[in-house]
Description:
This protein is α/β, with parallel strands linked by helices and about 250 residues long. It has one domain: Rossmann fold (3-Layer(aba) Sandwich), CATH 3.40.50.720. Helix content is about 40%, strand content about 20%. It has 9 helices and 12 strands. The strands form 4 sheets. A 6-stranded parallel sheet has the order 2-1-3-4-5-8, sandwiched between helices. It is globular, with a radius of gyration of 18 Å. The two termini are about 35 Å apart. The mean pLDDT is about 95.
Amino acid sequence: MRVAVAGGTGVVGRHVVAALAASGHEAVVLSRATGVDLERGAGVTEALRDCTAVIDVTSVQALGAKRSKAFFGGVTRTLLAAEREAGVGHHVALSIVGAAEAPSAYYAGKALQERLVQESGTGWTLLRATQFHEFAAQLAVRSAPGRLRIVPAMTSQPVAAAEVGAALAEIAVGAPRGIERDLAGPRVEDMPSLVRRYLAAQGDHGRVLTVALPGRWGKALRDGTLLGGPQARLGVQPFDEWLAATTS
């Protein structure tokens, strides 16, 4: 089976590509390096010829709602239109647990993406996952070694990106499922603690300052909105096991 992967070189995308290859399927990576510009809409339809499904794991470095909505709205509309033209019958989108309940900041774009997919009228599956283990590392490297890191107060349930990638690959080669069960990590964690543990594993003695963000968005980070629900599928690899493998 030929499956297109939008964002196939990213944190989750590379695991999607590997999982597809391991199960005997062909992954078509949609990226500028392969002549596809998802934001401009260049080369997308041509790249989707003979594909049976598209997995969207694109991402953007944006904290604000305006940029996030512009990116995810634009890319989703471009992919859906190209899929209709190319005759692709299954659109698989990765979203974030809690995006629809707290559509602020970066999550505003993911909430918009979810709405567009559900209103598309074509075959689709939506998988919501919790934050990846790598998110703590991303927060940690925003400052130089030894410097102060400011980390939001956040209750998280981090999951291995490799497990998310494998789940998406398995979904894509089957029939559309609609809204799939949430995928969350095996343990509930405190995000500032994860950042401290990551820094310690790197030999970085920088301090972590926890800041409670205001408003609805800040409350959602702390009150469990971003955790997998009671019906969530739980991943296997906990953060500390991932950290040990990453830093060994």
